[in-house]
Write a structure and sequence with these properties.
The complex is a heterodimer of chains A (about 250) and B (about 240). With about 250 residues, chain A is mostly helical. Chain A has a single domain (about 35-240), classed as MetI-like (MetI-like fold). Helices cover about 80% and strands about 0% of the residues of chain A. In chain A, helix 3 runs parallel beside helix 6 (about 115-140), helix 8 runs parallel beside helix 9 and helix 8 packs antiparallel against helix 10 (about 215-240). Chain B has helices spanning about 10-25, 35-50, 50-85, 85-100, 105-115, 120-140, 145-155, 160-195, 200-210, 215-240. The longest helix of chain B is centred in the C-terminal third of the chain and has 38 residues, at about 160-195. The interface between A and B is large, with 55 and 53 residues.
Chain lengths: ~250, ~240
């Protein structure tokens, strides 16, 4: 479908919003027109107010995500190939999966303080689940033929994981990263809304407390854009690194 | 998810035993993590006094209301989108626009519009659960075997009856998968919204015990929430 026809419904909704907000029936400070939100969004970038919170949220999300990738992939691959690791860890991860990890915010604050560390650790914990589970399923799906031929050539267990299982699990691992990227931004923002410490989440909750709906909206747009860009970036990395991948049933 | 088996509880029991042993031996100071026995005692006490039950009712009232709205609107919208091209063209771009917005981040805005009470929480939960239900219903309806619809039409079945008796049952497995995602999302958004502003509910309970330094009571609620979440998901897998 051409882009233009896809834009029509969005234009209609935003136009209706603008009209309602300008009709004088609602308080423009509670329900501001779209145009004013757009102006505010440009303003927060122009006057530099958004940059510090933006970097705060971004580095926390990426640090937690990176740690989860580094720990989660080897653990998941090990679970997929070693019986004892699967026996011990698989139940723990499936029991922990339905627990909303943000419920651990108060515990993490008492362990790691109210500043960045507790937030990064929480993002790490939450992202660990998709990373481990997707790596695990990837490793379990590796065809035994590859393992047999590597074994027949005398490949050791560490080399096997690194050179055979990891490359063949990459498709699933990248799926995990795409899930985890979204989780990382979400947890960063929620933890900042709940326990402060700068970042876009705190900026938003503060704007709400001062009744500054325009800034709150501009922040929400920024948060959504970060999530969207990171997700697309992960997708792009996947596409450009995985073009060689053997499609397996 | 694989079938539930007692053997899967062994690693969990080992972990809890290690926790308890570390606490008793003094390796794990009480200020860092209270012994598991204290947490279990708090959990029993809170269950006995009815405190947990009343907060559970408050939480699940909110989550249930939001979830129910999302289910009704989501299935209806997904069906309509799949069966009527006009609806799809009108709604799909808007859904794509809302999709990347982290739903808990909308909580402050809804609090401005709907107040800090239950209405704003229910609205955010409904919106967050809506997307997976719509997408699953849409995809499920789209993939219904056209033969089924043709044979129903050939027998003179009315359009509405086809929707109810042919399309919906055939799409049910996919809708169920969307519902499962929606349950998980509902719990996350619920706890976030109760952290941000609430005086009842399990999220509030965790946050207020955590703030008061009553770690054993806080962990008791966290574990209780984990068990509830697990039961909700596995009940769903079982029904499925």
């Amino acid at each position: 479908m051409p882009l233009l026809t896809r834009l029509i419904p969005i234009v209609v909704v935003l136009g209706a919003w603008e009209l309602v907000a300008r009709a004088g029936v609602v308080n423009p400070n509670v329900f501001p027109p779209v145009s004013e939100i757009a102006v505010r969004w440009v303003q927060v970038f122009a006057d530099g107010r958004i940059w510090a919170p933006l970097w705060g949220t971004l580095w926390r999300a990426l640090a937690g995500l990176a740690a989860a990738i580094v720990v989660g992939i080897p653990l998941g691959l090990l679970m997929g190939r070693a019986r004892w690791a699967e026996w011990f860890f698989e139940p723990l991860f499936s029991f922990g999966f339905p627990l909303p990890k943000i419920a651990l915010i108060p515990l993490y604050v008492s362990w790691f303080g109210v500043f960045s560390l507790s937030k990064v650790m929480l993002i790490f914990t939450d992202c660990l689940f998709p990373m481990v589970l997707f790596s695990y399923h990837g490793a379990r799906g590796v065809s035994p033929i590859y393992l047999w031929s590597a074994q027949a050539r005398g490949t050791g267990p560490v080399r096997m994981l690194w050179r055979v299982v990891l490359p063949l699990s990459l498709a699933s691992i990248y799926d995990g990263i795409q899930v985890a990227v979204v989780v990382a931004v979400l947890v960063a923002v929620v933890s900042e809304m709940v326990s402060g410490g700068g970042g876009l989440g705190e900026l938003m909750i503060r704007a709400y407390r001062y009744g500054d709906v325009r800034t709150a909206f501009a922040t929400l747009v920024t948060i959504s854009l970060i999530g969207f860009i990171l997700f697309k970036l992960a997708q792009w990395v996947r596409g450009s690194l995985l073009h060689w991948h053997v499609a397996e049933a | 998810m694989k079938a539930f088996s007692i053997a899967k509880l062994v690693p969990l029991a080992l972990l809890l035993a290690a926790w308890q042993a570390a606490s008793i031996s003094g390796l794990l100071p009480k200020a860092v993590l209270p012994p598991f026995s204290d947490v279990a005692a708090s959990l029993t006490a809170m269950l006995g006094s009815g405190e947990l039950i009343s907060h559970t009712v408050a939480s699940f009232g909110r989550a249930g209301a939001g979830f129910a709205i999302a289910l009704i609107v989501g299935v209806a919208l997904g069906l309509l989108m799949a069966r009527r091209a006009v609806v799809q063209r009108a709604v799909e771009p808007i859904l794509l626009l809302i999709y990347p917005v982290p739903k808990p981040a909308i909580i402050p805005l809804f609090m401005v519009w709907l107040g800090i009470g239950d209405a704003s929480k229910i609205a955010v939960i409904a919106l967050a659960c809506l997307l997976p239900v719509v997408i699953a219903t849409f995809n499920g309806t789209r993939s219904v075997d056209q033969m089924l619809i043709w044979s129903a039409q050939a027998r003179g079945t009315s359009e509405r009856r086809i929707l109810w008796r042919v399309v919906l049952p055939a799409a049910l497995p996919q809708i169920a998968a969307g519902v499962r995602t929606a349950i998980a999302i509902a719990i996350i958004v619920l706890v976030s919204s109760e952290f941000i502003s609430s005086e009842t509910g399990l999220g509030y309970l965790i946050f207020s015990y955590g703030g008061a330094g009553a770690d054993d009571a806080m962990l008791a609620v966290v574990i209780y929430l984990a068990i509830l979440g697990f039961l909700l998901m596995s009940w769903h897998a079982f029904a499925h």
